[in-house]
Design goal:
With about 260 residues, this protein is mostly helical. It is built from 10 helices and no strands. Helix 7 packs across helix 8 and helix 8 crosses helix 9. It is elongated, with a radius of gyration of 31 Å.
Length: about 260
């Protein structure tokens, strides 16, 4: 009798669930009319009657498209790629796992990118943005003028072999002058050139730390400490070596000067 008089835990949970669904149902039936969801629509109107409204909507769509592509533009068309790859390789060479943290590496890369790209952005502002804001040139002319300083920056950093590769893949006409290279060809060539340069710098960073690891591993092996991980002994010496040679100053200075 006691088994049937006292409900089990499953019965209590089932009763609670039924009560909750009942409250939701009654609340929805009684309040549904006063809390209706408003409908949202985007309508440009008749293009023949109000062409200006259509132009404003198209400009907004273009602006939203540019904002959605802003991270990719920042990563692919600036010095950000080389900097963040080199700093990541430096962290792996030191063997500090997650120190510095990803937020620190990305933040430092962003500020260094702003510092390096400031002359380019000043040219874009003076040659394209300000004349367009003052309604002195059209949007198409502003885009062409804004692309010129960025294109010059990428041409200085992109390798001829990489540019020739994408010209060959595109099956287009061979450009006779640097100004004739199109952006769809120049952008991927610039990106792989940046990755190649970053890996070269990373290899030079790895060498002294690799030699230090080999020396410490040989010393531990000669002392018979085969069960002791060499990384535990080499990490303090790596940090000491990096601090003594003022590693951050050397690496950041070399990265900035590599874009000169």
């Amino acid at each position: 009798m006691t088994l049937f008089m006292r409900p089990s835990r499953f019965g209590k949970c089932l009763i609670c669930i039924l009560v909750v669904f009942g409250l939701i149902f009654f609340a929805g039936s009684s309040w549904g009319q006063s809390f209706s969801i408003p409908s949202i629509s985007l309508n440009a109107g008749d293009g023949g009657d109000e062409p200006g409204r259509v132009a404003v909507v198209l400009q907004l769509l273009f602006l939203f498209t540019i904002l959605s592509l802003a991270p990719a533009i920042l990563v692919m068309l600036t010095s950000f790629t080389r900097i963040v790859v080199v700093l990541s390789l430096l962290r792996h060479a030191l063997g500090t796992q997650q120190m510095p943290a990803n937020q620190i590496i990305i933040g430092l890369s962003l500020f260094l990118t702003f510092f390096i790209m400031t002359p380019v952005w000043n040219k874009v502002n003076s040659q394209a943005l300000q004349p367009y804001i003052n309604e002195e040139i059209s949007a198409e002319k502003a885009f062409d003028l804004a692309a010129q300083p960025i294109k010059e920056f990428m041409l200085k950093q992109a390798g001829e072999k990489d540019i020739a590769l994408f010209v060959k893949i595109s099956r287009g006409e061979r450009p006779q002058k640097p100004d004739e290279i199109k952006l769809p060809v120049l952008i991927p060539a610039f990106v792989i050139s940046e990755l190649k340069t970053a890996f070269q710098i990373g290899f030079m960073i790895y060498l002294p730390f690799l030699i230090l690891d080999m020396v410490i591993a040989s010393v531990l092996l000669s002392m018979g400490m085969m069960m002791l991980p060499p990384i535990m002994i080499s990490l303090p010496f790596k940090l000491l070596l990096f601090v003594l040679v003022d590693g951050w100053n050397l690496i950041i200075g070399s990265l900035v000067q590599s874009f000169a």
